[in-house]
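Format is chain and fold; as here:
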Amino acid sequence: MSRQQEFDFGVPIPPLQPKRPDRVFFALFLQAKDRAGFWSVQRHLCDLNGITGSRLLKERFHVSQQHVGDYKRLRSKIEFAAKLAGRLVEMPAFEVTFRHAVSFPGRPAAKGRPPWRPFVLLADDGPVCELSRLIRSAMKANGLKSADHFVPHMTLAYDERFVPKQPIDPISFLATEFHLIHSLRGRTIYIDLGCWPLMTT
């Protein structure tokens, strides 16, 4: 997981040289066995809706859980606090199911640049939201800010086009662990800082 495309968490896509290049977040990632199915859905939906922009590689599919922050330089105390938060979270493994696709508003057109909108799969509410809530509580307990608003989703592509919400054939994956990721923004590199298992029977 050393090279990944940046996730979308309601934060505009950064410029080529972002002022705060170090982004830290918690996320769920697909297991290798699940990637082909989601890649087929990505290809079908993008072709169906005329999405011709940047598509994520199947190895990069993930569901963001909490945005820790964007920094000029990631400090060790932030990483330490985030890892402590990750260790506090205990929850059973669960299935994440997607039944709709839609475009998020993303980055508006400005200064001659076209809009750049995430095209995503929307996940059902349920355990995926509970995990986000538990991570949020653990972050606050360790002095980190967190987002109260959470829309569980998996980004498939970025494009100028806006696609209205549409139903899809349900597709799921089993979440068995969550990760703390350090994203080097503008360089499409992810560094895995930590991984915590979800309890299985």
